[in-house]
Amino acid sequence: MSAGRARPTVLAVLLAGGAGGRMGPLTAGKAKPALPFAGSHHLIDVPLSNLVHSDVSDVWVVEQFQPHFLNEHVANGRPWDLDRTHGGLRLLPPYEGAEGEGFAEGNADSLHRQAELIREFGPDLVLTLSADHLYRLDYRDVVDTHLAAGADLTMVTTEIEGDVSRFSVVQAESGRITDFAYKPDEPTGSLVGTEVFLYDTDVLLDTLAMLLDRDGRLEDYGDALVPHLVEHGTVAEHRLEGYWRDVGTLESYWEAHQELLHGGGFDVSDPTWPMYTAQPQQRPAFVAAGATVANSLLSAGAVVRGTVVDSVIGPGVVVEEGATVRSSVLMDDVVVAADATVETALIDLQVRIGAGAVVGEADSGRSIATDGDGDAGITVLGARHRVGDGEHVPAGAQLPEPA
Predict the structure, then answer these.
(1) Other CB atoms closer than 10 Å to residue 324's CB: what's the count?
(2) 322-371 pLDDT, tens per residue?
(3) Helix H segments across 64-186?
(4) What is the pLDDT of residues 46-80, one digit of tens each?
(5) C-alpha distances out from residue 172 to 83, 153, 159, 231, Å
C-alpha cells in the first residue's frame, strides 16, 4: 500500500450467537465464546486480543444464545482497550420492532440483521470472526492481501491434518479461492477456511440482500453467501501459517488443553502477542505440603492438597487431600473432595465431586489419547452438578447441569 494512501476503515463483527451444540453440557447455560481456556482465559479473548494487536478498534459482538456469562466477561471491553468514547466494543443482542428483528438462523442471517447498522457506520471493509478457534493473526496483513487482490472477499485458510469434513474445504490457485465445499462428506485436500473473512462492505450487504430475495432465507455463510462470491466474484486467499485449532467440539477442546500442557499448543502468554483477559480477583494458587502437582496449570485462588497431573485447574478450584485429578480441565470453583478421582474429564463451574467418588477412568494415570474417530472417552459434567460420595461416573458420560 502506498505511503500516501489512507488505510481503509475496518469494522470487526464477532459472531458469538451460536448455541454450541457440539459442546454438550458445557454450553447448555452459556455461549461457547465464554468457555474458559487455559484456566483463567476465555475463548473470546483470542479474537479480541488479535484485534487489539492489529489496531482494529471498532468491534461488534453479535449475541443470541445464553449471553449472560459472555457479557459479564467482556464487560465494557477494558482488558482489550476497547472501552472508548468513540468506537470500541459494542454488544448486539437480538431485538424486535425494526427491520432485522428476531432470532438469526445462522451467521449469514446474523450479518443481514445488522445490515442497516453496518451501512450507517460506513466501514470500507467488514471483518467477520468466530470465537471458537485458537490462533494468532495480524488482521492488517489480511487487509493488505485483500487490497492487493482487489478482492470482494478475502478468506483466511490453513492446512490441517486429519478429518476435515467438519470444516469448509477449499481449493486455491495463485492466491485465489477457486472452489469452496462447506462441510463436505467426501472432502478433497487439507486446505480449510478458518472462519476469518474480510468483505468489501457494499459487496457483502448487497449480496446478502440479493440472496435473501432469491432464496427467501439466509442461513450460514457456507450455504449461499461464500459459494456465490467464489463463483461470481473475486475471493482472495490469505494463508495462515503456524498453529490453528478449532475447539468447537468436546474432543478438540480437551485436546487443545493437552497440547498446551505437553508443548506445541496455543500459549496464551506469548510475550510477542499476548492474549488479554479479565483476570479473576483472587489470591495466588496454594499448593499444600504433601500435594503433588505435575505438568499442570493452576489458576488464581486454586487450593491443591491432593494430586494434580496433566490438568488445567481453574480459579477457585479445591482439590482436597487424597484426591487425584489427571488429564482433565476443571473450571471455576469446582471441589474435588477427599480421596476422589477425576480422570480425562471436562468439569464445568461449581461442580462438587464427593469424597471417594470416581469420575471417568481411574487407570494408573495414563493419559488417554484420541483414536482415529476422535473418541477419547471424555467425561463431561455440567455446571453445578453434584457427584455423591463414593459415586462412579463412567468414562464418556455427559451429565447435564441440574434443573
Answers:
(1) 21
(2) 999 999 999 999 999 999 999 999 999 999 999 999 999 755 343 433 33
(3) 68-74, 107-113, 115-121, 139-149
(4) 999 999 999 999 999 998 777 787 888 887 788 88
(5) 39, 14, 12, 13
Identity of the amino acid at 137: L
**What is the spatial distance between Cα 161 and Cα 9, in angstroms, rounded to a whole number?**
35
Q: In this structure, what DSSP letter does residue 164 have?
A: -
Q: How far separated are the first and last CA of the chain, in Å rounded?
A: 57
CB 169 within 8 A of CB 186: no
Helix (H), strand (E) at residue 341: strand 341-343
Task: Tell me if 299 sits within 8 A of 315, measured CB to CB.
Answer: yes
Phi, psi angle pair for 23, to nearest 5°: -95, 10
Give the pTM: 0.92
pLDDT exceeds 50 at position 267: yes
Is residue 95 predicted with pLDDT exceeding 90?
A: no
- Domains of the chain with CATH codes: 10-251 (3.90.550.10), 280-399 (2.160.10.10)
Q: Which residues contact residue 353 at a Cβ distance below 8 angstroms, ignoring those fewer than 6 apart? A: 323, 334, 335, 336, 337, 340, 342, 347, 359, 381, 387
Cell numbers at 304, concatenated: 491443591
